[in-house]
Design brief:
5-stranded mixed β-sheet; 444 residues; 7-stranded mixed β-sheet; alpha/beta; 18 strands
């Protein structure tokens, strides 16, 4: 289990005396490898999401290399603008790990050994059967008066420093596998003590309307409101509408959000909502199948296994994913799925009839409750005047029959985009077919 904050023997006062409520934050990621593009900076996105959930707005993100002078300059500038600066990286044992030393200098603090941190590092090495080299002791040297967050996921502890103005810097290790659980289990509760208000967000997931269409379907006043606020975020094949409310309690903020969400449900957007606060169409579909104890099977042509891949990315999917086939060649549609050759000859492989046969047959052959199939032209070649690149037929078969839609994506879009949008739409169509079946059972 994660350990609690470790105080220094010097008896310095604990941060969190409510001098200054945290409202404005900056994120400063440290590492030359980030500037060179050797590592993708996922920490900034993670931290932005988590700070927003705490009601702390992120006003700037920066990246600086392993240069103490430039790092000190960036940190001083961030502290002059923000109430909170969250840094990631540069807490390791090597000579170029200087974030802690630079922060100590900026805050005017000397460093001293934190015995609980050193003990934790020694135990970490002992547990992994590795020899602890002397330079690892550097990770246990902390600025005086710091609040230390012991690291159960690696060797470098995290820490927080506060200056006389009540400005706070939180220093986190760079590896996401350490940074993320440290923030969630120790830093977030620490920061919550500095917040008077609570921020709650609800996410309305939409598929079937573009970003501009969603905005046009809702009134201008809807997006101009200050509390709760509403904002649109576009993703390939779907749109996320985030509603955020600020209040004195989580219950009050959630109720404010819920009233806005209900308004959206009864608007022209309502019919295209596939979920509230769900991570993705595949996560929503897996959850719906698990709830009903049902399985899904996939038969893919132009999407090349992308639907099956996205379903099997979800933990626990093995209980609901029967399997899938990629029948890219025409003959395989007949050999593996039993699509009649005469059906293909009469309608071509990219057709409503073939997509429906693929969905029905994969469902039957795998004994699944739901069969999903795609066939189309992902480009850049192929297609015709009547069925251009970007045309995809998506079929979903259930016990109640088979439905099919003709999806038309602009041929100006690239192959990856067309495949992604088709997979997203197929997953949402399967989810809606499940919900429709459930509704029909209740009505009968």
């Amino acid at each position: 289990m994660p350990r609690k904050r470790a105080d220094f023997p010097s008896g310095e006062k604990e941060i969190g005396n409510m001098k200054n409520e945290l409202q404005k934050a900056e994120i400063l990621c440290v590492g030359t490898e980030l500037l060179l593009g050797d590592i993708v900076n996922t920490n900034a996105a993670f931290l932005s999401r988590r700070l927003a959930a705490l009601g702390i707005g992120v006003f700037r993100q920066s990246v600086v290399g392993d240069n103490p002078g430039r790092l000190a300059e960036e940190l001083r500038g961030a502290l002059s603008r923000a109430d909170l600066v969250v840094l990631s990286g540069g807490l390791g044992p090597t000579g170029d790990d200087l974030t802690k030393e630079v922060a100590a200098s900026v805050f005017g603090r000397e460093t001293e050994l934190c015995a609980p941190a050193l003990e934790r590092i020694e135990r970490y090495f002992a547990a992994t059967g590795r020899v602890m080299t002397p330079n690892n002791k550097k990770q246990a040297m902390m600025p005086k008066g710091a609040t230390v967050f012991l690291n159960d996921y690696g060797t470098a502890p995290a820490l927080a420093l506060e200056n006389e103005e009540g400005k706070i810097a939180v220093l986190l290790p760079g590896p996401p596998r350490e940074l993320e659980p440290l923030f969630d289990t120790q830093v977030a509760p620490f920061l919550k003590k500095r917040r008077h208000t609570v921020l709650v967000s609800r996410n309305v997931m939409i598929c079937g309307m573009g970003e501009s269409a969603v905005e046009a379907a809702l009134t201008p006043a809807f997006f101009e409101a200050e509390n709760p606020t509403a904002a649109l975020y576009c993703k390939e094949g779907e749109v996320r509408l985030r509603v955020t409310a600020k209040a004195d309690s989580e219950k009050e903020a959630r109720e404010m959000c819920d009233r806005v969400v209900e308004t959206v449900k009864t608007s022209p957007v309502g019919g295209d909502i596939y979920g509230i606060d769900v991570d993705s169409p595949e996560a929503a579909l897996v959850a719906a199948l698990q709830k009903r104890g049902l399985c899904v099977a996939t038969a893919e042509s132009c999407t090349g296994g992308l639907i099956a891949k996205r379903l099997t990315d979800i933990a626990g999917c093995s209980s609901v994913v029967a399997g899938g086939v990629v029948t890219y060649q025409t003959r395989e549609k007949t050999a593996l799925l039993g699509v009649p050759e005469e059906l293909i000859a009469a309608h071509t492989v990219v057709s409503r009839e073939v997509a429906q046969a693929m969905a029905q047959n994969v469902r039957a052959r795998m004994g699944a409750a739901v069969g999903i199939a795609t066939t189309g032209y992902a480009g850049p070649g192929g297609g015709s005047e009547t069925e251009p690149v970007g045309t995809v037929y998506i079929a979903v078969a259930t016990a109640n029959g088979v439905g099919c839609r003709r999806l038309s994506v602009s041929p100006m879009r690239d192959r990856a985009y067309i495949r992604t949008v088709a997979a997203t739409r197929a997953l949402v169509d399967a989810l809606r077919a499940l919900e429709q079946n459930n509704s029909n059972k209740k009505d009968s």
